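Entry 12.
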Amino acid sequence: MKLLGLHHVSILTGKAEKNYEFFTKILGMRLVKKTVNQDDTKSYHLFYADAEGTPGTEVTFFDIPGLGNSYRGTSDISTVSLRVPSTESLLFWKERFNQFGIESGEIEKRAQRDTLAFRDCDGTRLILVADNGEKGVRAGIPWQREDIPLEHAIVGLGPVTLTVAIAEPTIGVLTDVMGFRYVGSYPSLEGDFAEILVYATGEGGSGAEVHIETRPDLPRARLGRGGVHHVAFRVPNIEEYDQWAERLKNNRLPNSGKVERYYFKALYFREPNGILFELSTDTPGFATDEPMETMGQKLALPPFLETRREEIEENLRPLELN
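Predicted 3D structure (tokens):
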């Protein structure tokens, strides 16, 4: 069994309207699914991705109005990366961020790649990472917008960074249970701290990496608006999903057991530093209940919630996404 790479990340937002504006109209991603948090149907769950909702390109948000801020620290998914085709793309995005008054850094090297750090409307720590023809997990299909040239559009998820107080327990789960391999390290950009360690799975490359930042000087993170709730990894099919369920059980890792999300099947567990991981199947995908051409335009509910549509819609706040 081999995980293919990153599947999605799920983040908390305090206002879905501003979040939608940022991710679609500024970043140019496609809203591929407007649904509800299946564990709390009073909350919206929005999925942004490439043109086809390809696994490995998805950034999802739970809408929780009035949520307080996140506080940086350990036991945290501290940064999320988004892939763009080239260093020239980073220059395009640097100028675009300046035009929109969005906070961003300078182009810097991380793991031998050119990157550009920025923040969204909730303060989420995000990084654009340039592929520059690197081999590895295939990029997605860019969503076309008139004001973003296709050669600079976002094409998927890049590495996630986990900030921990002690790295070894997290590394043990990544390598011994999940099959990741060590591929290198790079200096911290935060100061005189331990080098950031890079682990990869599947075909490797930007879309299949986890970076481990060791920061014993920080307090434990507090999750809130702009914080990353969990990171999910790609399981190719239901057969391997069943095998992963057994693998977690055999390794005595407390977990959710099999969870049916309809658009994918999931397994949740916390690694030893308390960060929430998910294993998600690539199939069946977001076009299973909507035509590919019109995904994300209406409130979608999986069949096991469809019978409650009237109740669910009554309890949701109005959400105008234009």
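Annotation: The mean pLDDT is 97. The chain has six helices and 16 strands.
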